[in-house]
Amino acid sequence: MSTSSSTAQTHYQCYIDGNWVDSAQKLSVENPATGEVFSSVPDCTLEQADAALASSQAALQSWKMLPAIERGRHLFRLIEALQPKRDLFARLLVLEQGKTLNEAYGEFDDTLNYLTYSAEAARRIEGNIFPSDNASEQLWIQKVPYGVTVGLCAFNYPLALIGRKVGPALVTGNTMIVKPHEATPITAMEFAKVVEEAGIPKGVINIISGSGIAVGEHLVKSPITQLVTLTGSIRAGQAICRAVAENVTAVSLELGGKASFIVLDDADIDKAVDAVVISRYANCGQVCICAELVLVHEKVADEFTRKVLEKVKALTVGNPMDNPSMGPSVTAQGLDRVESIVQETINAGATVACGGGRPQGSEFENGNWYQPTVLTEVTADMAAAREEIFGPVLPIVKISSFDEAVAITNRRNDGLSCYLWSNDYRIIMDGIARLEVGTVFVNKQIVGYIQGYHSGHKRSGIGGEDGIYGIEGYLQKRAVYLNCN
């Protein structure tokens, strides 16, 4: 399988204080479609992490004192520098992350949208004025930046998550240190070139690579860091909370979940089938809000399952540069987890209705490949119904009532999202009120609008991203009691 690495450099450097910085130790970057190492980045030292922190701190005062509209103009220059590089970034995303080329183009476009929304928000940062209890006084609530922020990005959207974090952080007056995931650091380093080209003042954005356990923890524990924003697993979020405890550093955590896809007996079955296939197998199932578990009413379960199988069996897997339906998983460790969950579920009595293993053919002998898979005869206590799979596996559980679906969804200790398919407005309103998740998709496939809000309930996170509330997540409040006498 040829997924040419000619687009990428064989080695990248980090971007600290406006300079390109290397280290003696390297992190290898693999192509998930072939397993081949095609590039490397520095495994930065703790001293280099300290340099990034000092740089961000030194840049903070002058950056936050700029009028918000000037910070927005800097973001627009960044967008202008990024726009011509659509082909480059799309191909880099395919190389290091494994998503299809079309999906990679979509991620690039999403990145521009995130940055543009933030730049346009410069004139919309609002505070409040409340009546005072005394004459000749005013009570103001100002919204001010945290200061030095650390953005920790997951491997499923290496570029879009940078735009999602950098945009709101900068427009609100913060500086940011970006640390990409070790498996997917290349697009971040290429993004740093755009930062330099756009003339963003040094120290406002630093981009540093290294292990999460060493470099990431050091950045998070530093007393310089005032806000940590993480997109990652629940386990990573728990580690962040422990790490920030001593300094009581603010956090914004967008973590994992296991979205139920509830299909009731009055649903439009054909539309629900189309939606679940898109919502499960997008990005090889590696989206935190993917449909992870079907809960389908027993009256329509057979029809629904038959139609799902027809769609899933028609999905293609192959070289992501050629735009099949699905590419590989990002990491070998992630694929091992998928295989383990599937096997445990089969051992408990489930049936593999399609897929269930590595695709056949010489082109799939290396790399992190798995077939689009559907599991039937699944019960709610089996592994595939309990664990977040984060891969191309769809377990189907039959239910007898909407109350049963709500109970299965709500008994979890996470609550990121769920899908509800029904044409009964009473059930829809009841579901919106009762389902304990951050996002409910009603008769809708997976989507995320930049003006919305992406957040989790329970262990799925603290705070959130996108829209006006995402912007506010990078601001803290300051009360001002102003005596005018």
From TrEMBL:
<dbReference type="InterPro" id="IPR050740">
    <property type="entry name" value="Aldehyde_DH_Superfamily"/>
</dbReference>
<protein>
    <submittedName>
        <fullName>Aldehyde dehydrogenase</fullName>
    </submittedName>
</protein>
<feature type="domain" description="Aldehyde dehydrogenase">
    <location>
        <begin position="20"/>
        <end position="480"/>
    </location>
</feature>
<comment type="similarity">
    <text>Belongs to the aldehyde dehydrogenase family.</text>
</comment>
<dbReference type="Pfam" id="PF00171">
    <property type="entry name" value="Aldedh"/>
</dbReference>
<dbReference type="InterPro" id="IPR016163">
    <property type="entry name" value="Ald_DH_C"/>
</dbReference>
<dbReference type="InterPro" id="IPR016162">
    <property type="entry name" value="Ald_DH_N"/>
</dbReference>
<dbReference type="GO" id="GO:0004777">
    <property type="term" value="F:succinate-semialdehyde dehydrogenase (NAD+) activity"/>
</dbReference>
<keyword id="KW-0560">Oxidoreductase</keyword>
<dbReference type="InterPro" id="IPR016160">
    <property type="entry name" value="Ald_DH_CS_CYS"/>
</dbReference>
<dbReference type="InterPro" id="IPR016161">
    <property type="entry name" value="Ald_DH/histidinol_DH"/>
</dbReference>
<dbReference type="InterPro" id="IPR015590">
    <property type="entry name" value="Aldehyde_DH_dom"/>
</dbReference>
<dbReference type="GO" id="GO:0009450">
    <property type="term" value="P:gamma-aminobutyric acid catabolic process"/>
</dbReference>
